[in-house]
């Protein structure tokens, strides 16, 4: 059976319709988004730099060395201090722990650290995030007073009440804490520039560093 060819006008209209559909700025990946934008824009969702950095850290071994150093730090000094209810003040026990941390950190001028602040579940999440950050900043300030360069210390994240050690809606001192962690290496340090990460990790540390101590238990108050 013979096919009747489409009239020229109908054929032209069909082509125009298909072209408009393909070129519509619908943002769904059509010709418009691929043709009129810069090459590679669609592929780069904003995380390309992070992926590149991650690949570099894996290939150089830096990522594994950061993990190894974190494990060593956690095994040799206490990484956590706790706080009174609704307070960011450091008590005597906290200062003892932080002096031990500072003694360890001073042996590794190539290494950067982060301090994470936490609260218990009492109070609003917004208030507790601010309180957690205040606790992290108090720790950073104290470590800086012990001779640690503030350029190597970050109080950048507060988890507020979202990561409790003890799951409870009530007051719990163990949840009102900061945690100090190794976050990476100082990129401009000569040892790091030469890629001597292993030498950093296995360097001898001060034998007189303060040993781990049992943290004090809770005290009454009015905040998280």
UniProtKB/TrEMBL annotation:
Signal peptide feature range: 1-21
InterPro entries the UniProt entry points to: Bact_OuterMem_StrucFunc, OMP_bac, OmpA-like, OmpA-like_sf
Location (main, coarse): membrane
Keyword Zinc assigned: no
One Gene Ontology term, aspect cellular component: cell outer membrane
Keywords attached to this entry: Cell outer membrane, Membrane, Signal
Subcellular location(s) of the protein: Cell outer membrane
Ranges for domain OmpA-like: 70-186
Domain of life: Bacteria
Classification via Pfam families: OmpA
Keyword Transmembrane helix: no
Protein name: OmpA family protein
């Amino acid at each position: 059976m013979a096919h009747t060819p489409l009239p020229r006008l109908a054929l032209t209209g069909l082509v125009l319709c298909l072209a408009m559909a393909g070129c519509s700025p619908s943002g769904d990946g059509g010709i418009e988004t691929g043709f009129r934008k810069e090459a590679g824009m669609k592929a780069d969702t904003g995380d390309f730099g992070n992926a590149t950095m991650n690949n570099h850290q894996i290939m150089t071994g830096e990522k594994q060395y950061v993990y190894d150093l974190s494990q060593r730090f956690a095994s040799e000094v206490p990484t956590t201090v706790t706080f009174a209810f609704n307070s960011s003040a450091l008590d005597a026990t906290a200062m003892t722990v932080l002096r031990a941390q500072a003694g360890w950190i001073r042996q590794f001028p190539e290494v950067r650290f982060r301090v994470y602040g936490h609260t218990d579940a009492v109070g609003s999440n917004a208030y507790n995030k601010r309180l957690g950050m205040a606790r992290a900043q108090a720790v950073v300030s104290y470590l800086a007073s012990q001779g640690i360069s503030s350029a190597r210390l970050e109080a950048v994240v507060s988890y507020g009440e979202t990561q409790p050690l003890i799951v409870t809606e009530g007051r719990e001192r163990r949840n009102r804490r900061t945690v100090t962690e190794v976050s990476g290496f100082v990129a401009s340090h000569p040892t790091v520039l030469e890629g001597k990460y292993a030498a950093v990790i296995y360097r001898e540390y001060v034998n007189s560093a303060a040993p781990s101590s049992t943290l004090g238990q809770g005290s009454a108050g009015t905040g998280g």
